[in-house]
Amino acid sequence: MSDVSLSEKPVEELTLEEAAAELERLSAEIAHHDRLYHGEDNPEITDAAYDALKNRNLAIEARYPDLVRDDSPSRRVGATPSAAFAEVRHSRPMLSLDNLFTDEDVLDFVEQVRRFLGLPADRIPVFTAEPKIDGLSLSIRYEKGRLAVAATRGDGLTGENVTANVRTIADIPERLPAGVPDVVEVRGEVYMGRGDFFALNERMREETGKVFANPRNAAAGSLRQLDPAITARRPLRFFAYAWGDLPRLADTQYDTVRLFETWGFKTNPLMVRCATVDELVAHYRRIEADRASLDYDIDGVVYKVDDLALQERLGFRSRSPRWATAHKFPAERAFTTLKDIEIQVGRTGALTPVAKLEPVTVGGVVVSNATLHNEDYIKGIGTSGQPIREGRDIRVGDTVIVQRAGDVIPQIVDVVLDKRPPDAEPYAFPTLCPRCGSHAVRDVNEKTGRVDAVRRCTGGLVCPAQQVEKLKHFASRHAFDIEGLGDKQIEFFHALEDDNLSIREPADIFTLKAREAGSFRRLKDFPGFGATSVKNLFDAIDARRRIALNRLIFGLGIRHVGETTAKLLARAYGTWDHFAEEMQAAADRSSDAWRGLNAIDGIGEVVADAVVDFFAEAHNLEAVARLLNEIEPEPMEAPVAVDSPVAGKTVVFTGSLEKMTRDEAKATAERLGAKVAGSVSKKTDLVVAGPGAGSKLAKATEFGIEVIDEDAWLALVEGL
Question: What is the DSSP letter of 212?
Fold first, then answer.
């Protein structure tokens, strides 16, 4: 069995040999990640993925205790100290904490403590609960009141001597007040505030082009600099919350930490005492909800038995205390504040709302933006039209829950209504494109009748967000087919800032030669161009100044108008002037022009809406007018058969045809010069009705249109 399949096999299904192999693999893999995280400050997997490896190792060891390895991750803390720093042997080991992930885990932890201490079922000890700072553990030893040595956790027994660097941290006093014991060892977490982190990254981006992934990496990398002068320029901070070599100065964890404050240390103000499991979980929920408002990263809440005498009775396991544990936050979720909603316009004109967030670390990555999908999602409506988030909408100012899973773009999954500002207003999604000011519309799905979730800009020719893709389409093989003006060339011309050489809209293609002639710069001087290639390009452009009507219509890039639809429209209207006039008139949905457009066989309401919306946009009409100054659309006449009795007439087929298929009938009518429509209007000349004809036949009768049956149709066209 391969390592990959073995790593996915449930623990309870592993054989003895497979379990041993898995423990060997896990030991090596976890050691690798420990080195990256603790030794190089450069983790390559998320906390959740790391926890999953550790939990699988523990589960296998619990099932096969005889297989526990000497180098097991369950017996290790941190990583081997770097050879770049002198080693410091800790007076008392700096252990790590076990992790809890659910409320049930919290109850189990408290019950284990109660049972170990032999307390009655109705009595549990008091606990402290405080944020778990996502930074770098540090131990600071004072001798006779003076800072003597500071060390990282390292492997838990031996750490790295970072004394010179620690002396540069303002939160850490150089001297303690008179009266403290001769030896004092204060422990806590070095971290970097979010605001300081972003400022540091901005400075590093300008100086080196490299940035830190998150505040934890920034703090660890800054503390472990070989040059203390560099550390001094980094805004490191410190929270004190524990101790190593220290005589008992108080009876409780809480009071000892408070004592540190009087010595000049910063301690976390969110540390509280809790007397019940419900109080522990409630404080966890409060901290999780307030996580976004903190200026430092946290990844959970730490619970500790408050009574120091009970801590001593509980003691330690091999790598963690029995009296403390960490209740971790879901690694891929976080609470933060929605500062704004920004509308981005994609290359196809889709308007996508993006949440601008108070930055928060989610899954090891600092997140400041998240997708909101579409306007219905903001309103609390799902793709099926049913409520999501129980119908809760999303508003600027809301406290929101952000989710990030793997490499998926972060998204807002819910809001915390209790924290909604009283002046928060429902979000009004724009109906005009924020890039070009054109109307933004939502299509209706013909099959389902449901409004499309995406709102799109109708200013295809002029919208900056869509220009490159529209220009590529315009010059493509089935549109204007301009040789030498492929995708790369379009991107090149669009990126040029020289107005004499740039291409921003279709008309610019045809004015390029004249503009280049008046420019100080010449295309032949650019890489990839020469005198011959430039001449060939200009010749290819000039060759398309006369263009078939259907190619022009297709080249405009109107949504839902493909090659076939463009031919249908060109054939139905014959000339550009007629087509443009009718499309503008069709903006009145009660007009004959609108009915005539929908009557064209193969043109449904979705296509009709898209075409009419295009022509209703003044920006598009202006761009088309500039294009028409440079080109001449060729009329597209429908094929007309000599002596055909239906030439030039509009024919509608309805009901069942028994002697030919519907497609055969349409093809025959078009071959004989008729226009085939899908619905009956006053412009219809002839209706061919078979059995089962319904509303179309009734409308033909109402309008007084000639109606014949299939046999009469065959007799009419027989021999032609």
Answer: -
Regarding whether 658 and 553 lie in a shared domain, the answer is no
What 3-state DSSP class applies to 132?
Answer: strand
Average of pLDDT values for 103-113? 93
Report pLDDT digits (tens) over 117-137. 999 988 999 999 999 999 999
What integer pLDDT is reported at residue 406 of this predicted model?
52
Alpha helices for 119-224 (secondary structure H): 163-166, 194-207, 215-223
3-state SS of 411-451 is EEEEECHHHCCCCCCCCCCCCECCCCCCEEEEEECCCCCCE
Query: HEC profile for 505-525?
Result: CHHHHHHHHHHHHCCCCCHHH
Q: Is residue 681 in a domain?
A: yes
Domain edge (last residue) among 636, 667, 699: 636
Contact in structure between 406 and 428 (CB atoms under 8 Å): no
- 542, part of any domain: yes
pLDDT band at residue 39 under the 50/70/90 scheme: low
Q: How many domains does the chain have?
A: 5
Residue 3 has pLDDT above 50, yes or no: no
Counting every residue written for the chain, the total comes to 720
Angstrom distance (rounded) from CA 491 to CA 471 = 9
CA distances from 471 to 491, 546, 558 (A): 9, 18, 12
User: Do 667 and 545 reside in the same domain of the chain?
Assistant: no
pLDDT band at 53 (very low <50, low <70, confident <90, very high): confident
Check which CATH number belongs to the domain holding 412 and give it: 2.40.50.140
Residues 362 and 323 in one domain: no
Report whether pLDDT(68) > 70. yes
Contacts of 340 (CB under 8 A, 6+ apart): 355, 356, 396
Residue 213 is encoded by which pair of tokens?
A: 């992934």
Q: Is residue 677 part of a domain?
A: yes
Task: Decide if pLDDT at 84 tops 80.
Answer: no
The answer to whether residue 645 is domain-embedded is no
Token digits for 295?
């200026």
Of 65, 68, 78, 64, nearest in space to 31 by CA: 78
Q: Which of 76, 106, 88, 63 lies closest to 152, judged by CA?
A: 88
In DSSP terms, which residues pair with 616 in a beta bridge? Answer: none
pLDDT, tens only, 580-634: 999 999 999 999 999 999 888 778 888 999 999 999 988 899 999 999 999 999 9
- Is the pLDDT at 714 greater than 50? The verdict is yes
Decide: 356 and 378 in contact? Cβ < 8 Å.
no
Instruction: Give the pLDDT confidence of 305-335 residue by residue, as tens digits.
Output: 999 999 999 998 878 899 999 999 876 778 8
Residue 675 structural domain: 650-717
The string of DSSP letters for 465-489 reads TTHHHHHHHHHSTTTT--TT--HHH
**What would you measure as the largest C-alpha separation in the chain, in angstroms?**
119
Are 209 and 275 part of one and the same domain?
Answer: yes
Based on the residue annotation, tell me whether 682 is a catalytic residue of this protein: no
Share of the chain above pLDDT 90, in %: 47
CB neighbour list of residue 605: distance below 8 Å, 6 or more residues apart: 444, 446, 598
Q: Please give the pLDDT value at position 230.
A: 86
Q: Which of 132, 304, 472, 699 is catalytic?
A: 132
* Separation CA 23–CA 411 (nearest Å): 36
Closest C-alpha among 26, 23, 51, 25 to residue 37: 51
CA distance 713 to 308: 102
